[in-house]
Amino acid sequence: MASRKSRKRHIPQRTCVGCREVISKRDLIRIVRSADGVMIDPTGKEAGRGAYIHDQSSCWATALQGSLARALKVDLTSQELEELERYYSQRKEEWEG
């Protein structure tokens, strides 16, 4: 039986729109702009333009101030901003605790 060389599996890398750090896609939260508007993409597979954010306060603050809107090439509505802030505030304790 011939031995097979093990190959390193490709790990997708993405850039956080808050701090611009490039890390593994699985370690980031995807926000997607679709025909339905801007929303959190928990699966990472929704169709539409996506942007990625760390699970850190500083990254979310920077992203919500404008870098997320630029990355998604859209003007975020106040309702979308409120939804994203609500998601962040619910998850903040889990990430930092």
Structure in words:
The strands form two sheets. A three-stranded antiparallel β-sheet has the order 4-3-5, covered by helices on one side. A two-stranded antiparallel sheet has the order 1-2. It has helices at 57-72, 78-96; strands at 13-15, 22-24, 29-34, 37-41, 49-53. It is an alpha+beta fold. The mean pLDDT is 91. 36% of the residues lie in helices and 23% in strands.
Which helices and strands appear, and what pairs or packs with what?
Elements: E1 13-15, E2 22-24, E3 29-34, E4 37-41, E5 49-53, H1 57-72, H2 78-96
Antiparallel strand pairs: 1-2, 3-4, 3-5
Number of helices: 2
Q: How would you sum up the global shape? A: globular
Number of structural units classed as domains: 1
For the residues shown, what is the average pLDDT?
91
- Computed structural class: alpha+beta
Spatial order of the strands forming the largest sheet: 4-3-5
Report the CATH C-level class: Alpha Beta
